[in-house]
Amino acid sequence: MFERLFKGTGSLTKLIFRQQRFKILVWLAGLVTVTLACASSYPNVYQDVPSKMAFAMTMDNPAMVAMLGPGYETEDYLASFGTLFAHECLLFTTIVAGIMSILQVVNVTRNDEENERIELIRALPVGRLAYLSGGMVVMFTTNVLLALLTGISLALLGIDGIDTEGAFLYGAILGATGLIFGIITALLAQLAETSRKTAILSFSVLIAAYLIRGIGDVSNETFSFFSPLGWAARAQVFVDNYWWPILLAAALSMIIAFATFYLNSIRDMGAGFLPERKGKKQASPILQTIFGLVFRLQRTSILAWTIGIFALSASFGAVLGDLETYFADIEFMQAFISNEAGESITDQFVTLLIAIMSLIALIPSVSVVLKLKGEENKNLTENIYSRAVSRTRLLANYYLLAVIVNFIMQLMIVLGLWSVGQLVMEEAIAFGSTFTSAFAYLPAMWAVIGLAGLFVGTLPRASGLVWLYVIYCFIVIYLSEVLDFPQWMNNLSVFEHVPEYPIEELNFAAMAVLTFIATVMAICGMIAYNHRDITG
Amino acid sequence: MAIVKTRHLTKRFGKFVALNGVNIEVNKGEIYGFIGPNGAGKSTTLRILLGMLKATTGEARIFGKDAWKDAVDIHKRVAYVPGDVNLWPNLTGGEVIDVLLRMRGEVNKNRRNELIEKFRFDPAKKCRTYSKGNRQKVALIAAFASNADLYILDEPTSGLDPLMERIFEECVIQAKNEGKSILLSSHILSEVEKLCDTIGIIREGKMIETGRLSDMRHLTRTNFIIRTKKPVPSLKDVKGIHNVRETGPELAFQADPDQIDEIIRYISQFGVVKLESTPLTLEDLFMRHYQEINHSGQMEDS
Questions:
Q1: What's the mean per-residue pLDDT of chain B?
Q2: Per its UniProt record, what InterPro entries does this chain match (chain B) (predicted)?
Q3: Backbone torsion region of residue A379, taken as left when φ is above 0, otherwise alpha when ψ lies between -120 and 50, otherwise beta
């Protein structure tokens, strides 16, 4: 029985590990480095009691709770740097660990199956479940390594308030969350018939887990217990050091793993439990246009992003009402946060939210442009270029779609924040100013879209590097003060040049310059694209 | 006028020389067989002709226009079937056929449906579920349903079953009869032999032989299989006989055309029971060519 199902797991584990080892290395190195960089910055930033008090008060407001989890008592913040660090960084890092596991598991399950690598393996004398087991062992090992490396290195930093047990619990929470989402992805890989669908479903679960926890943390804690991220946020790392979230995660993973292995053992290779529908015999007139084709190829992910961005914005909008009441109660906070008189604190938060949301909303637009390179990698553009379609025309259609997607995403941010905010706030945010605030980001976002186009034209193999720039922009917005960047480093991010309306005046000159830069990069990308070899 | 003409086509990828002075000429109404082993440079040549790769040096012209600069114009009259057909996984076969046809111009619905019928293709499935053969059918239907003047076919039958292969051949011959030109790359020699008028052989990026099939055959030997009552002594030493092989009671060998008379006279002394003669297949031709190259190569080495 065991032989029949699992024979060859050992060597397949090695094989899968070999394929994944570079990615594992990069993910682990990145996660541990960022964690260490963050942790070691807190003693410098929060040197005295008032600054810690201010931190505690900021973190206690509903918007922050919705974003980062419930946090600690004020005296805990005063007693230890670990609490500051854990509250601000833990939840987001668990999400990143979840993303790591999702991508890895999609790769070693459905993706390998779709590309007929598993067929090759299954024809060998190996057990029916051996490849899945191998993938799971690699995923489990990756997360254990993440937990241990994070734990050891945090403990070695020797920061006041980051004790050894807390450090290892912190690592273990990252590993356990990664494990849960990895195993959930493996389960979904049995249901969906394609790697795309698996990834979409898995990320939906991750987003849902975040949203449920956010709503639960603000309104009703019971909800939060339905989300693994809700457990992670309740471990009270560096104070009480509860280990039950780890045990709970391990138990849940075991149950899901059992279901996954069972489903895998009873299904046909290549099949899924959510079957695909029968398709159309003819192409619609829209699909027969270049734009229609370009859109159709990315329709699902654009739709998913539209819903996701709206949901995320709406959930932030939902806490604006609580935020308002909260700030109204605490006059001290008003004096502290608002440097300029006459600005409502809500406005400031809305502005910050829009900045962060815009960065997230940039991802689908950049993906649209990079898709062209992805199509080339899959030898799909040759279908187009062997017909009467010029490169300029195709790339222009990708640009057009990216700009339209960009517009839609910003609109979703505005609609999400405004529509729900209006319901819950006494003094509702104005549609007009929210709209202006979000759409002021367009030129900066176009510049990144242009950069993506420039990469596709000039350095196609390195076009993924544009993501590094997006991450850099995110670091500048989110962490520049913590990491104390010099001004020129902040200026490298196009988002730094976007006027924070309504706190700042609209700066049309800066917007014009950004638009110009975007156009120049897009055109250079197009010229280069017209002159290079198309490999597929 | 030559429909396709390349002159000293050279393509380098970094230091690697993929093509080294390739000359091809396809005339109107002609089927040109472009033969070579995998990795010889066939697909690279075709991609240069399609304007997807830029030749390092040399010239590629189709309909008298530059393959790189006038690609879009040229492609209005070209149909292409890649060797490894990749399709958009979330579109159906029928959708892809329409999309591909529309990118060239008008869609001829009747011709499209006729070919779908002929190739027994199910257009309602998502492309990700198609086998290699079915993906190839998509490309073939999209190619032959279009009203092109030049068909560029890169190993188009490698995934088709013999029945479908015959339908493919019918399509090619029909196109030829309509005065269309076809550039057919292949390493399946029987296919080229059946269809082509002219062939060009490429190896390691260099053209090693070009010519009309009938002319090349003239230069080559004939295969014989014989059985005799008495054993034939010292057959190997007879002038013009090559590659003697004994298979049970039978003898197989190749004969130079100008020596056939002498050879028949010689073996008839031993009481011929069976005599089979077949023209050399392209496969033999190909093998012989490589042997010669290897021979001369070895001689140069020593």
A1: 88
A2: AAA+_ATPase, ABC_transporter-like_ATP-bd, ABC_transporter-like_CS, ABC_transporter_ATP-binding, P-loop_NTPase
A3: left
- Which residue among B88, B97, B107 places its CB closest to the CB of A297? B88
Taking CA atoms, A188 is separated from A107, A226, A264, A336, in Å, by: 13, 18, 11, 47
Which two three-digit tokens encode residue B253?
């060998």
Contacts of B128 in chain A (CB under 8 A): 114, 194
Q: Where residue B259 sits, what CATH number does that domain have?
A: 3.30.70.920
One domain for residues B14 and B137: yes
Identify the closest residue of chain B to A379 by CA–CA distance: B86
Note whether B133 and B249 are same-domain residues: no
Q: What is the pLDDT of residue A341?
A: 43
pLDDT > 90? residue B194: no
**Hey, where are the domains in chain A?**
1-269, 285-536
Cβ–Cβ under 8 Å, residues B40 and B205: yes
Which single residue is written with the structure tokens 């695909």?
A: A276
Could you give the angle at the alpha carbon of A388 between the alpha carbons of A383 and A390, nearest 5°? 90
Structure tokens at A261: 């292995």
CB contacts of B152 in chain A (<8 Å) are 386
State pLDDT tens for residues A444-492: 999 999 999 999 999 999 998 999 999 999 888 877 777 788 889 888 9
Whether chain A has a CB inside 8 Å of the CB on B7: the answer is no
Q: Does residue B289 lie in a domain region?
A: no
Rounded mean pLDDT of B198-215? 87
Number of domains in chain B: 2
Q: Is the domain of B13 the same as that of B116?
A: yes
pLDDT digits (tens, 9 = 90+) for A362-403: 999 999 999 999 999 999 999 999 999 999 999 999 999 999
**Of A278, A297, A388, which is closest to B76 when you measure between CB atoms?**
A388
Distance from CA of B170 to the nearest CA of A (A): 23
Candidates B132, B133, B127, B145; CA nearest to B87 is B127
Establish if B208 belongs to a structural domain: yes
From residue A470, alpha-carbon distances to A312, A410, A440, A448, A475 in Å are: 19, 17, 18, 8, 9
Mean pLDDT within B272-301: 69
Cβ separation B125–A278 shorter than 8 A: yes
Considering the domain architecture, whether residues B210 and B233 belong to the same structural domain is answered as: no
Is-contact B215 B48, C-beta < 8 A? Answer: no
Spatial CA neighbour of A369 closest among A516, A522, A471: A522
| Containing structural domain, residue B240 | 221-279
Q: Is residue B143 part of a domain?
A: yes
- Residue A382 to residue B95, Cβ atoms within 8 A: no
- Calculate how close chain A gets to B88, using CA atoms only, in Å: 7
- A99-137 pLDDT, tens digit per residue, is 999 999 999 999 999 888 898 998 998 999 999 999 999
User: Is the domain of B126 the same as that of B243?
Assistant: no
Residues of B in contact with A281 (CB under 8 A): 92, 94, 123-124
Residue contact B102–A114, C-beta within 8 A: no
Domain harbouring B186, CATH code: 3.40.50.300
Q: Do B50 and A536 touch (CB under 8 A)?
A: no
Residue B161 lies in a domain: yes
Same domain, B25 and B65: yes
Question: From the list B52, B88, B94, which residue is nearest A385 (CB)?
Answer: B52
CA distance B148 to B106: 12
Q: Which two tokens stand for residue A521?
A: 């990069």
Question: Which of A110, A290, A386 to probe by mutation at the B interface, max B CB count within 10 Å?
Answer: A386
Give the residue from B163, B193, B216 where a domain finishes.
B216
Q: Which residues of B touch A288 (CB under 8 A)?
A: 98-99, 102, 107
Same domain, B146 and B58: yes
